[in-house]
Design goal:
By secondary structure, the chain is of the alpha+beta class. Among the domains are: 100 residues, 3-Layer(aba) Sandwich (Rossmann fold), CATH 3.40.50.20; 71 residues, Dna Ligase, domain 1 (2-Layer Sandwich); 129 residues, ATP-grasp fold, B domain (D-amino Acid Aminotransferase, Chain A, domain 1), CATH 3.30.470; 49 residues, no CATH class. The chain is 36% helix and 23% strand. The structure holds adenosine-5'-diphosphate (2 copies) and magnesium ion (MG).
């Protein structure tokens, strides 16, 4: 085995991303140290870690966001480097700086870069200077007179988006259709931004209608090398949060890909970017693209990039953080085949995405060639209200988009989960949707196609995978046969309430008898 870059690395995160990072650490012979709050003591990321730092409490503010405490405890354990994952402390410049001051390597870009890119106004201004196209808009200071703001908005033209300078995770945004709505939206966005980020500054942006969200993975080392690892299409969103991502984007021609990739690299060079990052763009229906923001961390959807460029991005992050040069040049990188990721959330699409909580009685993911699951849970895990409802990510690879779509549809149909409300059926309905199959998507796809309300009961195949008695399998006669058997097994109760999970009790009994 090659020489490890570090001996011991703290993963300052939880859930699927903490698990995924630790897997690479273990492969490299590096000891992973986990952090755990009270509700997470039995969690997957704690179970697989070699060492655990206990952070008493439940709320993120008392636990995973306690930067000073985490650094002090990491030092006591002889930790050399800290991987922040995404969310939590990952884009906190003060934490990155405090790590460095304590003699810990922060696995990410320099604190000043995190700070500047965390401010969408500063980031946009830098991009403008660098010649990267930005969405037309306006930003001023809090002293600006409202009549002046109104005037600026008129000049941009409606619809307009009011956005928080410190925004993230889709928060602090307000769509304004006309001048009459501006003042209320402006103050509502500022209030939300103050509450969510402790920073009330907002700015205006022209609202691009029917756009696609296309982002580029960037990577820089400490020797001045910067590359991009191609794009990810993340247009399937709900409330500005991504749900399904894929690469390559069906919308990019080789020319447009080259142009956008070049802009992403130019942006990264202008920042003096090191380690992994993402430059997000919005792509208009007319093919014009605009810079949105830079995420100075590993992205949720990084696996689709990994599966098509055949690189382990966490390994590269460690390598670069240890001071080694990137092991390739731009020209060495090629996109191979097609990858799709679905985010598995504990929420019930048929009931207005109500969060699901409870015990995962069944959790049987599909297994097969070119199928990857990044999961923060296992069968028997308790899903609580305390943290992000994303349980896992299902990622598939195919030689082309069609092959990847077929594989994803199959994989979702075999994903058996009982006990906790989830969006597996919803994801499958999106993947199978004719417009999605054609790659005709934009960020309002889910508003235009009311898929959520229509997601039906759990697929027969998935129930079979859940181990629902071999008798049922044997008795199955044709496509509708199982439904009859199910009905009998459930004591004749045929009524679906819209959520198959409402019947978890009956299924539980059935499987206990098997
Ligand atoms: P990605 O672009 O990687 O898909 P998301 O916007 O989905 O990122 O956010 C990833 C995670 O980080 C989510 O759990 C989200 O809630 C959280 N997050 C993102 N930005 C912020 C922020 N500024 N403050 C707090 N949490 C954030
Ligand atoms: P966040 O930091 O919350 O991720 P972004 O600026 O990246 O904020 O925007 C999140 C999402 O909001 C984008 O993926 C896109 O769907 C939508 N969005 C942002 N800016 C615009 C815009 N100017 N026009 C249309 N949609 C936008
Ligand atoms: Mg974003």
């Amino acid at each position: 085995m090659s020489k490890p870059f570090f001996k011991k690395v703290l993963v300052a995160n939880r859930g699927e991303i903490a698990v995924r990072i630790m897997q690479t650490l273990q492969e490299l012979g590096i000891t992973p140290v986990a952090v755990s709050s009270d509700p997470d003591l039995q969690a997957e990321h704690v179970r697989i870690a070699d060492e655990v730092i206990y952070l008493p409490g439940q709320k993120p503010g008392e636990t995973y966001l306690q930067g000073e405490k985490i650094i002090a405890l990491a030092k006591e354990r002889g930790v050399e480097a800290v991987h922040p994952g995404y969310g939590f402390l990952s884009e906190n410049a003060a934490f990155a700086k405090a790590c460095a001051e304590a003699g810990l390597v922060f696995i990410g870009p320099k604190p000043e870069v995190i700070r500047d890119m965390g401010d969408k106004i500063i980031a946009k201004n830098l991009m403008k200077q660098t010649g990267v196209p930005v969405v037309p808009g306006w930003s001023g200071d809090s002293e600006t007179d409202f009549s002046e703001i109104q005037h600026q908005a008129d000049a941009i033209g409606y619809p307009i988006l009011v956005k928080a300078a410190a925004g993230g995770g889709g928060k602090g945004m307000r769509l304004v259709h006309n001048a009459g709505e501006l003042e209320a939206a402006f103050s509502a966005a500022a209030r939300e931004a103050q509450n969510a980020f402790g920073d009330a500054r907002v700015f205006l942006e022209k609202y691009i209608t029917q756009p696609r969200h296309i982002e580029f993975q960037i990577f820089g080392d400490q020797h001045g090398n910067v590359v991009h690892l191609f794009e990810r299409e993340c247009s399937i969103q709900r409330r500005h949060q991504k749900i399904i991502e894929e690469t390559p984007s069906p919308a990019l021609t080789p020319e447009l890909r080259a142009q956008m990739g070049e802009a992403a690299v130019r942006a990264a060079q202008a920042m003096g970017y090191t380690n992994a990052g993402t430059v997000e763009f919005i792509l208009g229906p007319d093919g014009s693209f605009y810079f949105l923001e830079v995420n100075t961390r590993l992205q949720v959807e990084h696996p689709v990039t990994e599966m098509t460029v055949h690189q382990d991005l966490v390994r590269l992050q460690l390598q670069v953080a240890a001071g080694l040069p990137l092991p390739f040049k731009q020209d060495d990188l090629k996109q191979d085949g097609h990858a799709i990721e679905c985010r598995l959330y504990a929420e019930d699409p048929a009931r207005n995405f109500m969060p699901g909580i409870g015990k995962l009685d069944f959790f049987r993911p599909p297994v097969g060639p070119s199928i990857r699951l990044d999961s923060g849970v296992r069968e028997g895990s308790e899903v609580t209200v305390h943290y992000d409802p994303m349980l896992a990510k299902l990622i598939v690879w195919g030689k082309d988009r069609q092959a990847a779509l077929e594989k994803m549809s199959w994989a979702l149909s075999r994903f058996a989960i009982l006990g906790v409300a989830n969006n597996v059926e919803f994801l499958k309905a999106i993947i199978d949707h004719p417009q999605f199959q054609l790659g005709q998507v934009h960020t309002h796809f889910l508003e235009e196609h009311p898929i959520a309300a229509n997601t039906g009961p759990v697929p027969d195949e998935a129930l079979l995978v859940a181990g629902l008695s071999s008798q049922i399998l044997k008795q199955r006669v044709g496509a509708t046969g199982l439904r009859e058997q199910e009905t009998q097994a459930m004591g004749g109760n045929r009524e679906w309430t819209g959520s198959p999970w409402a019947h978890g009790g009956a299924w539980r009994q059935l499987t206990c008898q098997k």
